[in-house]
């Protein structure tokens, strides 16, 4: 078998020639069978290699799929394991006058837990006690007052004895005032931080000895605004602080068998998101601003800002707060509680994914949602 190169020149246009090159294979008559056999072998080898590659790639994808499925099934089964002896476990919940804390107290009471519900007002405590079983104990607690917390520790210590405290749910919180940071004074920040962050820290530190006895659980209520700051004021700052405090506490307390979980609710209809309270606080902030600051924002800015807040709360806030309390309950009852719980479709599908994206994307979204000042650059 020999190869011979041939060149053919053909006119394609006046003044231009196209030269084509190709090879002729000359096969003597006696070698035809051997050549055919060689070509067949080459084709067979290449086909086998191709099929092997296809099979291996599909096998690899199948293995990945099976491993992912097995991991998901294992996670689901592990996530469903529960602790036992609910009736012997004491759980303290702060902020039980209304909202998440109030519903969780009733929920755990129905499960048979020994619930100690801390309320800020006498009316809140009385109403909750009337709606629950005699097993639930409602009492007054101001999380911003260390002496009030100490009294609660003494009372709870007598109640739980050597069993210790199984669960502490730091739920008490406030949102207002929120708004542009330039409208705030220092005390506007401290009012929120005292409840949402320093109160959480003080309550947790004072109850830690009782929690260590039971090798119990700490459940801290943060927010998606602890992942993504959308407004000025102390609320976002406080929730970022709760996230950081919870992370450090979890790593420290794991040596003592204490689990620390963070609840990250999206937007829900509670006192924290009541638009009438937000509106009243915004009007208070606006009314005390110097005239030159008001002028920089423009005469219509305030009304547009309130409208934007009202629209956002109406669009995003879910009335089903049990989505949050179910997360809290799981953190208290699961044998293997999660580190973080995202509660609500908006938290899971929008806000938390958004928090992982580049900052300019979140900046753009906030810019679209809120009005622009008159004297913007």
TrEMBL record:
TM helices/strands, residue ranges: 47-73, 349-370
GO biological process, one term: steroid metabolic process
SUPFAM superfamilies, alphabetized: NAD(P)-binding Rossmann-fold domains
UniProt KW keywords: Membrane, Oxidoreductase, Transmembrane, Transmembrane helix
A GO term for molecular function: oxidoreductase activity
Name of one Pfam family that matches: adh_short
Similarity section: Belongs to the short-chain dehydrogenases/reductases (SDR) family.
Protein name per UniProt: Retinol dehydrogenase 1
